[in-house]
Write a structure and sequence with these properties.
Layout (H helix, E strand, L loop, with lengths): L1 E6 L7 E2 L3 E3 L2 E3 L7 H9 L4 E6 L4 E3 H12 L3 H4 L1 E3 L6 E6 L3 E5 L1 H10 L3 E5 L5 E2 L4 E7 L3 E3 H10 L4 E4 L5 E8 L8 H11 L4 E9 L2 H10 L4 E5 L10 H8 L3 E5 L10 E5 L2 E6 L10 H10 L6 H5 L20
Parallel strand pairs: 15-16, 15-17, 17-20
Antiparallel strand pairs: 1-5, 2-5, 3-4, 6-13, 7-8, 8-12, 9-11, 9-14, 10-12, 18-19, 19-20
Amino acid sequence: MKFGSVAIKDSVGGILAHSMLGIGGYISKGTVLDATHIAQLCAAGHENLVVARLEKGDVEENLAATRLAKAIVCKPEMQGLRVARAGAGRVNLYSTRAGIVLLDEAAILAVNTVNPMITIATVSRFKRVEEGSMIATIKIISYSVSEVALEDACSVGLSGLSIAAPIFETATLVETQVEEKRGTGKGQVAITGRLDRLGVQLESKIVVEHKKDQLADALKEAKGDVVFILTASATSDPLDVGPEALRKAGGVITAYGMPVDPGNLLFLGWLGKKPVIGLPGCARSPALNGADWVLERIICGQRLTQAHISSMGVGGLLKEIPTRPMPRAL
């Protein structure tokens, strides 16, 4: 591509690099100049213009952005993504379903290192999204890129993005209580809100005394595809009431504790094919906490281990919840 200042008489067919005021108003940058544009700019007193001209082997910005988008979203229905129309060298990608974002970080990095003029910016990995959410934007910075560079970007970015949809439809909340501390219902409201965003129905709520045997029986009775435990007293040890009740019911604990705050006191396990999430007390608030990250990924089919949860520490210091009994600032 040729780029630079030329005499206005030689700029016909060039791409205007900067918006200019002509006799009839502004002519926007990116306009392919014709005789009418030149006459308007001449009448306004311009003698030189900065223009870009494509050469053999160049791909125009909008076409380049569209081709890269379709390489990344080569199976739209399977990936749950929609490619928008190009404009000014930009194409946006949108989710066509609720879920979490899966992305190949190495592939996205590879696209961005092919040529500085070829870029893609995405939301963060595992971000929860709704139908219509913008997932990524592809931007060709210059007015064209070489065919060779574009082909390289398309090849390394193939299928680098997708939306994982929920694989469970219903859930049960099991809440424990102690005589001196009855539940307020806030937990159910907060959990229902989280599930609604993913299209999962809170089918039932079971309330039992904060005792291992009663909680174990409730877990066996739970009908939902996913089971949540919200205990009246914080689960402060892997042998506490919540984890022990899950074991007594025939389940297993696969993770305990997480380096995310708020949200440290979470445990995860399975009862047969049902995931069981022991929620921290902060889950009674609708504010973002570590339980959101686990809940969303489990519901969307991610089989989390202790290693996965341990990796959440970087970026895991979230906004403080003012209503916490023990806030950070003392």
